[in-house]
Amino acid sequence: MKHESRFFRGADAVGIYIQEPLFDRDMDEAAEAWLEILAEADVELDDDQILSLDTDALRALFTEARHSTAANYVEGVQHRGTFTVLTDCVVPPERFAEFLRFAHERIARDGIEYLAFGHLGDCHLHFGMLPVKGQTEAAVAAYDDIVARSADLGGVYSGEHGTGKRKRKDFLRCHGADAAEQVRRCKTAVDPDWLLNVGTVCLFKEDASACSA
Predict the structure, then answer these.
(1) What are the respective helix, strand and coil percentages of the chain, to the nearest 5?
(2) pLDDT score for 209
(3) Average pLDDT estimate for 34-41
(4) Distance between alpha carbon 110 and the CA centroid of its chain, in Å?
(5) How many angstroms from the chain centroid is the CA of residue 164?
(6) Which CATH code is given to the segment(s) 81-160?
(7) Could you give the 3-state DSSP secondary structure of residue 202?
(8) Taking the domains of the chain in order of start, what are their residue ranges?
């Protein structure tokens, strides 16, 4: 990510960004409350590892750094001559730790380089795999296993990025053929001749049939 040395100190490999809208208390009061929470968490966190984004310049710098993570991931994949294999799974909070363990172990099993970033508070962490040529099939298989585990844990395959063409089978795995039929009926109600977004926003009958079979 851009500005990595500004937001990561020493050998730290993990950063957590906490954002809280302030309605009934000022910034100093909120910061003090979070310091108490972190102290009680017993995470061996030094004061100099905490950065408060209390100026417009710092907030802009952080936003640029944050957005660069995903952009650099895509650029890295393109440089390797492969394609992005990125999970978007969300699971219930009580199953999140189990899901994380599985995802880390499953990707590492095939020796695929990857990074994880996302929204911890929503139990929604992206695993972005960086396969080299010769690893793409293994990366897709790891992705499929992670999606299947998220469904088994009561989660879903897509927390924010929609379905589209590449995730049609993920929809069926998580929601089943009956849900696909509901989507088809909604689609038909607003686009009876099926002229819009063919194959992108809706599942065809053969998809549901293959799932039910």
Answers:
(1) 55, 10, 40
(2) 44
(3) 85
(4) 20
(5) 16
(6) 3.30.70.2740
(7) coil
(8) 1-80, 81-160, 168-212
